[in-house]
Fold these 2 entries.
Entry 1:
Amino acid sequence: MDVQLTQEQRIIKDTVRKFLANEIAPLVEEYETERKIIGKDIFKKLEPYGYAGGLVSEERGGLGLDFLTYCLMVEELSRTWASLRTMVTSSALVTKLLGRMGSEAQREKYLPRLLAMDDLACFALTEPNVGSDTGSVETKAERDGDHYVINGTKTLITGGGLADLVMVYAKVKGSKGLTAFLVHKGESAFEARNIRKMGMHCSSLAELAFVDCRVPVENRLGNEGDGQRIALSGLNEGRVNVTFAVVGLGQAALEASIRYAQERVQFGKTIAHFQLVQEMIVEMALKVDTARLLGMRAASLLDREVQCRREASFAKLYATEAMVEVCNKAIQVHGGYGYTSEFPVERYFRDVRHLTIAEGTTEIQKLLLGREILGVSAFA
Ligand SMILES: Cc1cc2nc3c(=O)[nH]c(=O)nc-3n(C[C@H](O)[C@H](O)[C@H](O)COP(=O)(O)OP(=O)(O)OC[C@H]3O[C@@H](n4cnc5c(N)ncnc54)[C@H](O)[C@@H]3O)c2cc1C
């Protein structure tokens, strides 16, 4: 693996960083203080940089970026605004799956607006009674002529309150396994209710209720029973994507802590002089670097189409747990101010926390890795 970025990757990272600093960073404080949900006008600003279509091939209207480059963009976005990052990458996940697995008619109908960031999408698998055990989905779909009728509730859906297109996973009556459907708000009726949460106050996290929701048969993605395969197809990419999302927050927390340690004076010197403060900063920097390297290794394996279940799970598991520690330490470096909203580090801590849970919890990653390493499964 090459640990140095290519010149093109460096240029893209720098360009995106400058754009985010000028156009997006100035919005963050007001939005977060007022807990305003980010609107489509802000998503639209990201369109030229390929945040929606970076992973869609050029023939299908995307940018066809390599995965590592896209991850570098995700890190920068997360470093700037985690609330925005989470909705952008959820929508991009559905856009990517549609680009790869959708029929020609589905792609023609939905891709252009998603790629232009005029529409947003969300990925709806989790339910009130269904989390880690994704095979036990309770949402039902029943064929009725040229439609399916969907009944069920999805919960904890990122971007659900804003999304135009929902990728819904359901069990079709009379068929085995899960089936994926594209449910468009303009064509099929469902209700969305925003859920309050600990962090990422400007992103929507919603419960979606489908009551006799009629979806045209042509909106089924793949065949009946293909849902699990579709959901799992981007699993390793999802884990690596999340790795870079938390690294972005860890990097922001580290930078804020270095700045603060070099400015804050106690006992007649800046606190950067104190060995225990240096220890905190060095440990934070080491964790951020290690997490990024694990992410780069997995991303470069994905780019070369090499099997990397273990590397992707290692990256996700390590990075999410380590970045919670990094963001927590950033509060300690800031002392009492770190606990207040006068500095951004309390937000980084709240924002980073959910990623040891979403995209496969820490415990599930450990079980998967245990199976991979020991050859026996601890799953029932
Ligand atoms: C902010 C946020 C955004 C999300 N966005 C989305 C989204 O866009 N789309 C979507 O579909 N879902 C989304 N989710 C849901 C997420 O995928 C689930 O929360 C996650 O899969 C865990 O499921 P659960 O919360 O039901 O926990 P559970 O599965 O109920 O787990 C509870 C606890 O038990 C542990 N546990 C479970 N099974 C085992 C086992 N076999 N062995 C050991 N420990 C176990 C877990 O690790 C966890 O600690 C989001 C969640 C959050 C918090």
Note: The chain has a mean pLDDT of 97.
Entry 2:
Amino acid sequence: MIISKTMKSLLGTTLAGVALAAGLAISNTAVAGPLAPISYDMDNGNSGSYNYWDQIYTGTGSTTTDGAALTGGLGDLTDGVIALSNWYIAEAPAGNGPYVGWVNKNPIITFNFGTTVWIDSVTLYLDDSNVGGVLQPSSVDINGNNYVVTDPTPGDLLPFGITFSGLNATGSSLTLQLYRQSSWVFLSEVEFAGDVVSSAVPEPGTLALFGLSLAGLGFVRRRKAA
Ligand SMILES: [Ca+2]
Ligand SMILES: [Ca+2]
Ligand SMILES: [Ca+2]
């Protein structure tokens, strides 16, 4: 393919225009990236054939007591480990498996971010085994708004991830409630996408650089005066 000079120049202008438009769009719209909570609060999981506790939870509360109030820590739900097999495989023999499983309750989990964040999406990793009364929840509340949980792989009984996006939630925490449709709900990980809400105050890094360059100027001046 031969491209003439005129075509090249037109192409260049168009590309520059596209880049400019994209730059403007980015500067006006927050871009969602991974967001990590600093802690979450919830009731510990329950026991059945095994113990579906949050045993690696770092905060306050008994990680080996059914339903104990857990506060101020991180654990199974945010460790990056996503269960790829059903509870009866992943949790055997006992105690420290990747899931947290709750029975006969609709668990409430509050995630804390420590600063004001904008959250675009939440992804939940849930079991769907249809064994022992373990099914994905029928719906979830995110900050009080209800979302139906549809099985993205009907007929497939493996765990799955489901993303709720376009949330446009702003705050320093987010509350999630899972409404079970069977006796149990099993969750292995929760992921967030969004951004920290920035203010007009310069970041410490910028201030430090500014201070350094001022110090440098002062040093030069003193040397010249000497
Ligand atoms: Ca996990
Ligand atoms: Ca566990
Ligand atoms: Ca499925």
Note: The pocket of calcium ion (ligand 2) is lined by residues 52-55, 76, 97, 99-100 (CB under 6 Å).
